[in-house]
Write a structure and sequence with these properties.
Shape: elongated
Number of domains: 1
Order of helices and strands: HEEEEEEHEHEEEEHE
Strand order of the largest sheet: 1-4-5-7-8-9-10-12
Protein name: Lipid/polyisoprenoid-binding YceI-like domain-containing protein
Largest sheet: 8 strands, antiparallel, barrel
CATH superfamily: Lipid/polyisoprenoid-binding, YceI-like
Low-confidence stretches: 1-23
Number of helices: 4
Distance between the termini: 32 Å
InterPro entries: Lipid/polyisoprenoid-bd_YceI, TTHA0802/YceI-like_sf, UCP029811
Strand content: 35-45%
CATH topology: Lipocalin
Organism: Photobacterium marinum
CATH class: Mainly Beta
Structural class: alpha+beta
Domain Lipid/polyisoprenoid-binding YceI-like: 26-195
Pfam family, one: YceI
Radius of gyration: 17 Å
Amino acid sequence: MRWIDGVWLFFALVLGMGVSTGAIADWRLDNTQSSVNYSTVKNGSVIEYNQFRNIGGSITKGGEVSVTIDLTSVDTRIPIRDERMKKELFVTEKYPLTTLSANVDPVMLSNMTAGKTQAMEVVFSLDLHGMKQELKAQMQVTGLENGGLLVSTIWPVNIGAEQFGLEKGVEALREIAKLNSILLSVPVNVNMVFVK
């Protein structure tokens, strides 16, 4: 099996079962109810909103969080721009996925009844474009019916292109679109529903 075939097989399992080790996951991410959105600023003041349509993940009862984002599912609402993002910025032929991992308080998770909310700072590891960085996010967890969880950002998480070696890709996009500027930092918001 070629490496790239293995990657897509893995991601198919992520979307289908939450994670490849779905048998031990206590919550799996529901892609149909979840979103990862970010905004970009070009020419100083023009804001554009984008999202990734395919995400998967899980939370174990021990508090281990794993989320995988399919970068080929980027959606800017303009097909040619989607293709440029995949080719020039994310280089999805080489880096089709990005992954996030974190650990949260398992006692808090076990106490999340329907309607209960808990705010927390989460330290997480983000593996993007072949580089891994540790970041922080202000998150809120809300208990749902049937034991589910809603995990959302309280404030956007700012991701800098320079943190993950994406500056050249941003510059390539700027030149192709003949723009004066594209900001190198983007705010990211997430709303993730995990079900049992």
